[in-house]
């Protein structure tokens, strides 16, 4: 169930005064089961990129393959694709519309043509997966707190049982506790279900701790692609485009510059602490 | 997809027309529209065409943006032409099919009507393409100011208009986002009969209304927080002021009106029935 993009270009508003090339020759492959972070500034084309993954936006040139099949051939089952590649938009709470949370989460499976009982079963499973408290299942989605709304919206996509889950800035507008909650939950989901997870963010710090691979977008182009360690090794280049590496990267480089011979390739505070202790003890 | 709709869309450019005072553009557009409707001879329309072509050139707006507005009225245009063509009687009969007949007067009037409508749309699109919605409402507010005396809430009406205009692109964008989000959840907006399609709109309309009310509420709060309480005693950061080029524009349009009127009245120039 890999997803592959080949030389994808996309222009918004072609032929108008507001023409804007959002993607420029982007190629990448995401194998099944990977936890990938896509990072870039606002306007760097992250949202446009992920909308290609489920065919919501059609590339002006280039190709997209899902499971080695070109999704742009005539008669390709787009609806099926959207069930397999679940896309959670930024601020997903603004798409809630049903009278209660449970029915809203049922919307996706219902569109897949599943019987009512199955929809409800899946909705309950999905809500449980995102840690949504059962006592609110029959409450209006408009009365929930911000974090709960977001969980409900993510469950709405999960209920379709996608093979790939794509989240566009799932932590935008949440407080630090809510942010960590959601990210931990996403990590848990990945570990539990083994599904591919694509996490979009504009914050390195957020993503570094969770993902196996980072794709850095800049002005519509893929700038870097690799493990967090590989990507953060380019921290000077990241800085040049206004994306800082995590703060520990700086601490470790500073320590090294002052003659403390630590390994600089660490990405989290815990790793850094262990590394510093190792050097101090030696 | 949905962004491509052009309702009063502004085309950013730096031209003589763009820099005119919005009041000038509104008044001149009105004058131009009136001149079209009092005109019914070939020389008059020739002058109008030349004038329009000149203004289009001066506006630096690509022609294809200007004609885009015509798409919206194509049905109305055809209806008008057909009605006039068959229902106006007068002069020699040109074509007769079964109970329908086309007379000279019918042909003449329907052609003139079509030209008028097309020029009317082009003329008014030219105004909206070269004027930002905010400038436009400023202009309207300023022109309607005298109605204050009759206790018409001119400022409030203008404020409502500018807010509405400001929200059109925002709501279109929002609709686009919500549609995509629901399609991503497998919503099917394209197939099915009318009833099914209407039902399929619910997941789009509910969030759209919720968001529109939320935005309206936020905006009202923000305005109150900045002590907005209507137009009384309110000054403008950039008050409208006529400059030299505005007088030049008035002069040019007046000249056009005079020339077009004179040409229509005194030039005995005819081609066939026109
Ligand atoms: N619907 C749209 N219409 C026109 N331009 C758009 C639209 N969506 C995004 N853009 C433009 O495309 C570029 C990339 O946007 P986006 O993919 O949303 O970036 P990101 O998600 O990284 O912030 C931006 O410059 C943005 O202004
Ligand atoms: Mg985005």
Quaternary structure type: heterodimer
Biggest sheet character of chain B? 2 strands, antiparallel
Estimate percent helicity of chain A.
Answer: 25-40%
Helix content of chain B: 55-70%
User: Strand content of the residues of chain B, in percent?
Assistant: under 5%
Distance between the termini of chain B: 43 Å
Distance between the termini of chain A: 46 Å
| Strand line-up across the major sheet of chain B | 1-2
Largest interface: A-B, 25 and 23 residues
Number of strands of chain A: 10
User: How would you sum up the global shape of chain B?
Assistant: flat
Order of helices and strands of chain A: EEEHEEHEHHHEHEHEEHHHH
Rg of chain B, nearest Å: 24 Å
The total beta strand count of chain B reads 2
- SS field, number of helical segments of chain A: 11
Write the H/E string of chain B, N to C.
HHHHHEEHHHHH
Description:
The complex is a heterodimer of chains A (282) and B (274). Chain A is an alpha/beta fold. Chain A is built from 11 helices and 10 strands. A 6-stranded mixed β-sheet of chain A has the order 6-7-8-3-9-10, sandwiched between helices. In chain A, strands 2-1-4-5 form a 4-stranded antiparallel β-sheet, with helices on one face. The longest helix of chain A has 18 residues. Chain B is mostly helical and 274 residues long. Chain B has a domain of 190 residues. Chain B has 10 helices and 2 strands. Chain B has a two-stranded antiparallel ribbon with strand order 1-2. Chain B is flat, with a radius of gyration of 24 Å. The site of adenosine-5'-diphosphate has 12 residues of chain A, from strand 2 and helix 1.
Question: Layout of helices and strands, plus pairs?
Answer:
The complex is a heterodimer of chains A (282) and B (274).
Chain A: E1 3-12, E2 20-30, E3 35-40, H1 46-53, E4 61-66, E5 69-70, H2 78-84, E6 85-88, H3 101-111, H4 116-129, H5 146-158, E7 164-168, H6 176-193, E8 196-201, H7 204-208, E9 213-218, E10 221-226, H8 228-232, H9 235-240, H10 247-257, H11 269-281
Helix pairs in contact in A: 3-4, 3-5, 4-5
Chain B: H1 16-19, H2 22-37, H3 42-59, H4 63-68, H5 74-87, E1 93-97, E2 100-103, H6 104-130, H7 133-144, H8 154-184, H9 194-225, H10 244-266
Antiparallel strand pairs in B: 1-2
Helix pairs in contact in B: 2-6, 2-7, 2-10, 3-6, 3-10, 5-6, 7-8, 8-9
The structure holds adenosine-5'-diphosphate and magnesium ion.
Magnesium ion binds next to α1 of chain A.
